[in-house]
Amino acid sequence: xxxxxxxxxxxxxxxxxxxxxxxxxxxxxxxxxxxxxxxxxxxxxxxxxxxxxxxxxxxxxxxxxxxxxxxxxxxxxxxxxxxxxxxxxxxxxxxxxxxxxxxxxxxxxxxxxxxxxxxxxxxxxxxxxxxxxxxxxxxxxxxxxxxxxxxxxxxxxxxxxxxxxxxxxxxxxxxxxxxxxxxxxxxxxxxxxxxxx
Length: 197
Ligand code: SAH
Description:
Layout: H1 5-28, E1 33-36, H2 40-62, H3 76-99, E2 108-110, H4 127-142, H5 146-175, H6 177-185
Antiparallel strand pairs: 1-2
Helix pairs in contact: 1-3, 2-5, 3-4, 4-5
Bound molecules: S-adenosyl-L-homocysteine (SAH).
């Protein structure tokens, strides 16, 4: 298997992504969950995202099966993709650090769950999802293949659209007015700069 230089950059970024997740997953492990809204929709979405972020890129990198969907990119595109990947990894790391032990892979709340409104959560309610969407854009700019390149962005966008209203409903039910207040003061993916709380 000959790895093209930009594919190697993607693999390095992916390794950093997995390492960040691994470190923080260990820290959040073991807490008692008082709310668990993991259901068939969540399971299906997580499986689809795993296919888009992991399985298709691996098939692309290790086999010739997806070669029919290859295309050529101008040299500037993967260079910008590397920059987007660095930004995505920075935000991915910061959102894990700020959410701390309140992180979960699915819709869950721990017994001592705290509402986080600081750091990258100050003006954006879903910085981790923003980071993963950015990572998907970087993947598309680095892997010159319609399927393996854009599968992460497409599958995670689906998860984002279907999960985010349910996640916000869960947090509203649990925290009540403080979360409503936070919603007024922040944007979903982009910062809200409005004055006041
Ligand atoms: N949607 C957030 C967090 C993703 S991790 C983001 O994109 O940054 C998913 C878990 O984070 C959810 O199960 C929820 O319990 C928790 N969560 C989401 N926003 C939170 C917040 N502001 N404070 C504390 N926990 C939060």
